[in-house]
Amino acid sequence: MKNIKRTADFISNWVACLLAAMLLCIFVPPATAAGGDTGTNEDLSAVSRAVIELLQSRDIARFATELTPTVEDWQSVLSTNAAGQNLDPLAGIRQSAEYQRQKIEQSAKQLLARADSLHVNFSNSSLRAQIFPTEHVGTTHYQGIMAENETLPFLGNVEIILTADAGTNEPAKGDFKVAIRGLIEFPGGWRSYEGVRWVSFPSNIADAKTVREMTILEKAATYKGITGQDDPALLKLGDALVHFIRERDTNTFKNEAYVTSDLVWSMYQQGGREGPSRKELDDHLNTQAQQQMDIARSAVQMMKDAGIDLKKADIQIEEATIDHLQSQGAPGSVVGLMGSQFKLKLAVKSEGKSKSETPLSGEYIFAADRIMRFADDWKVMENVHWYQLPTGVVDTNTAAKIAFEDYVAEHGTLPPRTTVPEIEFTTLDGEKKMKLFDLRGKVVVLDFWATWCGPCQEPMAKLQTLRQSHPEWRERVAIVPLSIDESMKVVRDHVDKHGWTNTFNAWGGDGGWQCKSATAFRVHGVPTTYIIDGQGQIVTAGHPASMDIGKEVDILLALPNSEARAHP
Prior knowledge:
The chain is an alpha+beta fold. The chain has 16 helices and 17 strands. The chain is globular and about 75 Å long.
């Protein structure tokens, strides 16, 4: 059962928090505070020495041992006064420690493999290092482990410039540069939860493919987007999707553009970490494929209903872009990169017209919510759809549906001013079935969360104190944390242990991420919070850290019953 859930989490992991769920959400730090003295270069010298020793000795295990945060590191900063502390606050860290070590090992393997591919051997070289913090110099705090006023020095990224004085097999025209991301300073020294990767090589050593991949990885490290110019493999996916659009055939989409079990299985095998069996993987992907083929079929049906036939049209790819890029595979490898909000801009010339007698020529944008990079290809993982069509090609209702789906894809929530879907959930108190409609007339704070999601815990704790600080809300406001855990017992045990009884706690039902409540509200990441007015309309939605929930609710309560203040 555990492997099945791991499979579902990995394949359905469209956002960072679900990745954090798979990793028990321990090593994803909360927001950092800028400023402060995080240490001198001398303090970081042990980090640069570890990199030099790795390149010279190729001792991967030693490097991982020196750089990976250990249970002992976390024990050294454990406070007895941590807010909301579990009975065993280090339980999750103990469970994920081995995975974390393997992750750092994988980054070291990739570092050496990249050097080997370019025939660079440092074993007899003399290396000098300069280290520079380049991003997020500040402090970080871990709730449940540290007291509220305690922090640890944190560096989002450091770059190490290595100069080879002698011994490399080819004289270098320039310096070698590596980066280590996610550094935390414990009493025992600096540790990394993301690992090491190459940033650049001397100009006479790196080939075009290496330069391109390092550019892509640099953008992934900072969650930026890329284009087909950055990675021609995006244009290859674009060609497959153009073929699908021409043929209006889901088999074309499945065979040429959609992810396959073979690709995912190969990625698991190369990753070297524990995963599902092949049968478990195939079963999950087959279920996923059925859902995604239905979505692709809807895109085709919309074309047919509107009379959009582009089989004989001249279709040129103007641009292929990914809005945000994130690494979910081995550090330092393009395999496993996840791209969100893929858009394929097309220039179409056609003599045909739609059913509305509108010429089909114009600018089209076809999109997918998530795509994944494999060795040589990008493949669609989730939700292909039309993002933009020429004005007048489809009727106003269809255009409105496209705009609605565009908003959901971009923001990960239903839009403001949308009437909430009717959902049913089970209360933890009394295990009663209830519908969201039963709360109509009240302002509702609906928070989707899970016990396994580390970033969910602090917002959940804050919801407990919210009602206490607003006694005037009384019966006018319902605060409903809705868990998407696999079972209600897990939720009840977690809530009872923390004493979180000031909210109207509920469980979404069987299915986890696929439970009817989460699906209806398009939840792909937790925590996700909706504020809903008394008429059942969404006022605002998003990550609770981006909201002033108390202020939003007070504004709604001050309005006449017939009014609601909805905003994007």
